Amino acid sequence: MFTGIVEELGEITAVETLDDACRFRLRGLVVTEGARHGDSIAVNGVCLTVVDHEGDEFTADVMAETLNRSSLGALTTGSRVNLERPTAVGARLGGHIVQGHVDGTGEILERKPSEHWEIVKISLPADLARYVVEKGSITVDGISLTVVDAGPDFFTVSLIPTTLALTTLGIKQPGDPVNLEVDVIAKYVERLLGTQGGTR
Q1: 117, exposed or middle or buried, with CB in 10 Å at 0-12, 13-18, 19+?
Q2: Each residue's pLDDT tens digit, 140-153
Q3: Residue 197: what pLDDT?
Q4: Most buried of 101, 114, 161, 162, CB within 10 angstroms?
Q5: The three-state (H, E, C) secondary structure of the chain, written as one string
């Protein structure tokens, strides 16, 4: 499990394209400390498994399902990515419960800078809209954020200078894709209520 508190802004150093998958080599000084084969690291909000680790770089395989459901397929050598290691049991939950299982992708629609923050508008797939509520939590490229405004096909978030400086949302522009993971609690509640309703 992750919390959506990005530990560092890493970089894709190599991409190997396979028949139905790809292999990334990534650089991240913080997340590679103590990394071992089989460990999990979230890359732009997608939970990936460490295959190899050497120095401040690690490799991870990305299967077709992940490429199809996320924006990882658009990454190239030199792309910056948000990196986070799983949270330890008993550690502070700084953001919210994040699984690293991307539900879909959105697109940066608009950026409105202010003196001390920036409002970013992001498109929202229709099948995810019911899980996004004003002042609720959402994960964008692995970043735990609070929804400012929720529409039928978009939502907005307000970004503080720290988020702008230390994550991909500081450099992404209108038209760029982002990974979205909605609050898993909302999905469980929907399933439970749906099951209850079907047995009455």
Answers
A1: middle
A2: 999 999 999 999 99
A3: 47
A4: 101
A5: CECCCCCEEEEEEEEEECCCEEEEEEECCCCCCCCCCCCEEEECCEEEEEEEEECCEEEEEEEHHHHHHCCHHHCCCCCEEEEECCCCCCCCCCCCCECCCCCEEEEEEEEEECCCCEEEEEECCHHHHHHCCCCCEEEECCEEEEEEEECCCEEEEEECHHHHHHCHHHCCCCCCEEEEEECHHHHHHHHHHHHHHHHC
- Contact between 27 and 11 (Cβ < 8 Å): yes
Q: Which two tokens stand for residue 80?
A: 């910056």
Write the burial class of residue 163 (CB in 10 Å: 0-12 exposed, 13-18 middle, 19+ buried).
Answer: buried
For tokens 């991240």, what's the residue? 28
Please state the pTM of the whole predicted model.
Answer: 0.90
Query: Residue for token digits 């909302």?
Result: 186
| Total Cβ atoms within 10 A of residue 190 | 12
For 82-95, the pLDDT digits (tens) are 999 998 777 777 77
